[in-house]
């Protein structure tokens, strides 16, 4: 299971959006971790879908994790994902997906 320690609220954020976006691949990856290039790409794409969904929820005044303004979590999200992807050896895929997002 992927567990973010420095900013543990990111665990809840990603779980929420995996469920609300009905992204079973993301749920699987969150549960089991990234183990290959394809999963690294899928997970990276999902993270950017989360960012888009966060913006949309804020614009529509939708409460997520008790707040209608979760945009301030984006730096925490970027830190945790970057650190995690470095630890898996797939940081380059995170960068590639991020540059094309």
Write up this protein:
The protein is mostly helical. Helix content is 68%, strand content 0%. The protein is built from 5 helices and no strands. The chain has helices at residues 9-20, 24-32, 37-59, 74-88, 91-100. Helix 3 (37-59) packs across helix 5 (91-100) and helix 4 crosses helix 5 (91-100).
Averaged pLDDT: 96
Count of extended strands: 0
Instruction: Please tell me what the overall shape is.
Output: globular
Order of helices and strands: HHHHH
Structural class designation: mainly alpha
Report the uncertain regions.
Answer: none
Q: Give the N-to-C terminal Cα separation.
A: 26 Å
The main pleated sheet reads as:
none
Number of domains: 1
Q: How many helix segments?
A: 5
The Cα radius of gyration reads 13 Å
Helix fraction, binned, reads 55-70%
Q: Assess the beta-strand content as a share of residues.
A: under 5%
Task: For the structure shown, list the relevant keywords.
mainly alpha, 5 helices, 0% strand
């Amino acid at each position: 299971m992927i567990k973010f320690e420095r900013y543990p609220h990111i665990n809840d954020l990603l779980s929420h959006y995996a469920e609300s976006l009905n992204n079973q691949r993301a749920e699987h990856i969150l549960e089991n971790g990234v183990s290959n290039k394809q999963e690294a790409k899928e997970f990276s794409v999902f993270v950017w879908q989360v960012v888009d969904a966060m913006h949309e929820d804020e614009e529509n005044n939708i409460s997520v994790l008790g707040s209608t303004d979760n945009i301030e979590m984006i730096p925490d999200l970027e830190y945790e994902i970057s650190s995690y992807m470095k630890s898996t050896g797939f940081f380059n895929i995170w960068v590639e997906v991020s540059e094309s997002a």
